[in-house]
Each structure stands twice: as C-alpha cells, then as structure tokens.
Amino acid sequence: MGSSRCQWGEVKWTGDMEKLWYTYIGSKKKSDPLVISESEDSENDILGSTWEDESPKPTRGKKKIDFLEPKKVNKVRPMQGKMMGFGIPSLLLGRFNPVPSHMQGCPFFYFENVAGVPNNEWDTIKRHFNGVDPEFTDSKFFSATRRPRGYVHNLPVEDRSQLLCTPPMTIFEALPDTQKYWPSWDTREKLNCINTRKAPDSLCSLIRKIFRMYEGVDIPYYRQQEIVQVCKKWNLVWVGPGQAAPLEPFEIELLLGFERDHTRGCSSMTERYEALGNSFQVNTVAYHLSPLKSLYPEGITVLSLFSGIGGAEVALDKLGIHLKLVIAVEINEKLRGVLASWWKKSGQVGELKLRSDVRELTNDALSHLIDEVGRIDLVIGGSPCNNLSGNNRISRVGLCGIDSSLFFDFTRILTFVRQAMRDRGFL
DNA sequence: AAAAGCATGAGATGAAGA
DNA sequence: TCTTCATCTCATGCTTTT
User: Fold this and answer.
1) Which nucleotides of C are covered by protein (CB under 7 A)?
2) CB A257 within 8 A of CB A167
3) Adjacent-strand bridge partners of A8
4) Run of H or E residues at A245
C-alpha cells in the first residue's frame, strides 16, 4: 500500500522515497493524501481532477490539507500582539514595566536567549535579574530571517536608531540570484530561524526528483504545499530550476549582519553552521545597543560572555562605538580565533582579552580582572540555549540542563561586577 | 579521525472560527 | 469566551561515509 508504480520519465516514486519524504516533512500521519493519491491511477493525480472532486473532510486530529487552488493570498500578519508579539519595542513603549531602581545604571547589561522556552523559564530568568522584564524582539523586523528572542537589559529605550546601512529585508533582496528560480507558489518573503545544522543533501535531491517526475505537467497543488512545507522547515532556497538547497555559510553571515567569510576561521563546515546558528542577529542587537553611542563617546569597556563569533562586538563596532577594551569569554578555541581575526581585520585599536570559560571567572578571578581593567561599562551575552530550544527533542529540560545552566554564571558574574562597580563609585 | 547522514515530536503561540 | 488548527523551534545521538 502506498508503494506506487507510477512513473514519470526516468524517476520512479518508491516506497522508500515516500517514507523519506514524510520524514523530512515531519509528519507522523501515514494517512495523508500522498498515499491515497498514488494508490490507483496516476493520470488523475497529474490532471488534478480527483482532487477537485474529493471533498476535504476535516477529520478531528488529522491534518487538514487543501486540495483545491488557494482562494486567497497570504494575509499580512499584524506586527503587534500581546506580550509575546515581537513587535519593534519602540512602538510598544509603556507596555513594559520599568527597570527596578537597583538594577539601573552602570554597568549596563544585555542578556539574550530563545523566546520559546519550556516551563515558563522566562519567569525564572526574570527572577534572577531581580525582576527585569524581558523584551521580546523578532529579527524579521531587522533582516530577512525570523529570529524570535527574549532580551533582558537595562539599556535606555528612548532614541534608539537602526544601523544606517539597512540590511536586505526580504529573501529576494538578500539572495537576488535565487529569484529567477523561485516557483510562483512559494510565497515566502522571510526565511525561518537559522539553526545549527545544514539540511541533508538527500532532501534536496528528493525535491529535484519530484520536479523531474512532474516534468511537462503542473505539479499538483497538494504537492506544491508539501514542497513549500519542507522548504520552510529546512530553510531551503531555490538555486536552480526545481533545485532547492540549504543556505551557504556566507549567505547566513550576510543575513545575520556579518561580513562575508566572517567565520572562515572555523575548522569545518559543520562547526561553521553551528557557530552561525548560535549567533546574534547583528542589526537587531545594534538597534537595542544604539543608545550607548551617545553615552560613551570616548569608547566603551565590555565584558562579553559566551561571545561565540562576536556578534556583540560587531554590533557595537557597526554602531561606531569605540571598543576601548573587550574581555571576551568563549570556550571554543576556534571561535576565539574568529573573534581575534575580526578584531585585527577590522582595525581595532583597543585591547582584546580572551578567556575560555565563564566558570573560571570566579569571584577571585573577577576581582583581579576588575582591578586590572578598572571599570566595566557593559556585560553582554547569550547563554547556551540547547536545553531550552524547541528543536531539542532529547534534552529540552530547561535552565537546569547541562549547558543552559551556564545561565546562572551570567547572573552570578553580573551581580559581582555590579557590586564591584558600586564599591568603586561608578554607579 | 572527521564529517555528513539519518531518525527522532512536544509544546507554545496566535489566528480564525464557534 | 472558548475551541480548533496550522505553524514554528540558536538540537541530540546514533550510524554511515569519506
């Protein structure tokens, strides 16, 4: 059942292919119309007549699929919403509680993590920041990719500004070469969230085969929907006729607001995808950090935790804020190298201090460090999200997870630094 | 040894409908 | 106001290939 004998040209649709296809779509349902469609004769499938006669029965618990042509075009979703609406925050001023007085002032702090966390962990995060509300922002308002994130900070929100160099805001603007291959029925304007893994080539060749199967005839609407579904799920773009492919690292770099080949220093493609998937979207962060420019005309001293490929540093630099001194803490040696090479390449004249592990920044170590540097103006970073991300099906256990628990080092370090600044009269 | 392929859903959100 | 339904998610661990 389901294994079809129908054949178009050289390509035969086998049971194995079908199984793989549905694995990639992510559907558990084996009673989807694909099976029905190819059980009997394939002629009707191609012509689509079967599907127009078939009245879609919205059975409970099953996924409803439109068999007919779409009646209306995609609606534009309103940009505002409730607490989790991910609007541009300046439009929502007054919605957030003010930062408690004892959390205001020097040093500023800026913490980032994924928006969709289990167990109401944002409440826990808020509690560990002494009641500072997270601000939820989606990078789709600053770039061509989605990236819904929560940011806890005590930065001023008045007089924010975006980078003068506005990034491409749509897929076609970001990837103009792909436009001529984009099927009309793939109506995406924004890419989904960049993650840490590349889509497998087997999926892309499967899509190629499907296009070859329907060579000369229209691809049925339900099949178009399936293809769009996998493209969304795996963030594929069209790089040839009927040919979808994952984003190249340099494309992700540009989408996230970095220079091309920013992560060239990584030791492998796998590592490069992983580092980029874990990174900030530079323009979004720059928007939040923009008020710092007028506050620190002489330059800024930054403690950057979980630095990764240096999204925070790049954002500050793009804002034109002079980096007097950056203490960057990053456990991956290659990524420290990426940051160091950017530091040199971008002509920084300030000092870059590299540390490897936030856990090694004990109170004693911090004390020494602060004696050495004097004053810290900004503590910034995003702690590991693997135990929080919805993509994790194995160990999505929350903040207590083996990696995500490093969050508590962020607040521990922040508390110590704030106290030290207070002791030195910098508050 | 290193890199890539492959199999693995729940849970939250928000729009639309009842 | 309540229900339904589509949509999306900074991934992990094992196996296979290079």
Assistant:
1) 4-13
2) yes
3) A11
4) strand A243-245
CB A210 within 8 A of CB A18: no
Confidence band of A406 (pLDDT split at 50, 70, 90): very high
Considering only CA atoms, which of A167, A171, A216 is closest in space to residue A10?
A216
> With a 7 Å cutoff on the CB, does A270 touch strand B?
yes
CA of A357, C1' of B1: distance in angstroms: 26
Protein-proximal nucleotides of chain B (any atom < 7 Å from a CB): 2-16
pTM of the predicted model as reported, rounded to 2 decimal places: 0.87
Instruction: Tell me the C-alpha distance between A256 and A198, whole Å.
Output: 16
**Looking up tokens 């923009």, which residue turns up?**
A290
Distance of A346 CA from B13 C1′ (whole Å): 41
Distance, angstroms, CA A425 to C1' C11? 44
CA distance A95 to A150: 15
Give the separation between CA A332 and CA A335, rounded to whole angstroms: 5
User: What confidence tens digit (pLDDT) does each residue in A144-202 have?
Assistant: 999 999 999 999 988 887 666 678 999 999 999 999 999 999 999 999 999 999 999 99
Element (H, E) at A153: strand A148-153
Residues in contact with strand C, defined as Cβ under 7 Å from any of its atoms: A 26, 58, 60-61, 63-65, 112-116, 146-149, 192-193, 195-197, 229, 232-233, 277-278, 306, 382-386, 388-395, 403
Q: In whole angstroms, what is the distance from residue A49 CA to residue A54 CA?
A: 9
pLDDT one-digit tens code per residue, A72-82: 322 222 333 33
pLDDT tens for residues A33-63? Answer: 443 333 333 333 332 323 333 333 333 333 3
Among positive and negative, which fits the CA dihedral A255, A258, A259, A264?
Answer: negative
Q: Closest by alpha carbon to A279, among A149, A84, A418?
A: A149
Distance A333 CA to B12 C1' (A): 35
